[in-house]
Amino acid sequence: MKPFLAILLAIFTLSVKAQTSTAALTDTTVYTDKEVSVKPQYVGGMDRLGSFLAHTVRYPAVARERNTQGRVQISFIVEKDGKLSNFAVTKSVSKELDEESMRVMKLLPAWKPARNNDQPVRCLVELPVTYTLNNR
Questions:
Q1: Is 7 part of a structural domain of the chain?
Q2: Does residue 20 lie within any of the structural domains?
Q3: 76 φ, ψ to 5°?
Q4: Handedness of CA 25, 44, 126, 54 (dihedral sign)
Q5: What are the pLDDT digits (tens) for 81-127?
Q6: 69 lies in a domain?
Q7: Which one of 41, 120, 121, 128 has the minimum C-beta count within 10 Å?
Q8: Structural element, H or E, at residue 119
Q9: Whether pTM exceeds 0.85
Q10: What's CA 68's distance to the chain center, in Å?
Q11: Residue 110 is assigned to a structural domain of this protein
């Protein structure tokens, strides 16, 4: 009876571990940065992100001619593997500035993913892209 109980307990333990691992892998919940213990991070930090944006963003000619300025807000999900997905404009300024912001965001490399309970989780990020003209 004891060997049977030990085998049954071992199978149950393996089953629970397998379900936990599968659940962690298939969890599609998207958290906000306030709901995670470790926020997603651009590799190299915010200074490097700012530098990337400064070197990559091109002020659209039409927006420059129209003197269009403002802050476009882009949201995206940092996936469990750090890749970025589900890009969306959440605050629009103009078609040209929105499109340029989306183009640049889609060029971003993978990030360090957010974590909860020492496990990577999907996390929503919102980043502003500010467009300012120096009219001298």
A1: no
A2: no
A3: -160, 165
A4: negative
A5: 999 999 999 999 999 999 999 999 999 999 999 999 999 999 999 99
A6: yes
A7: 128
A8: strand 119-131
A9: no
A10: 28
A11: yes
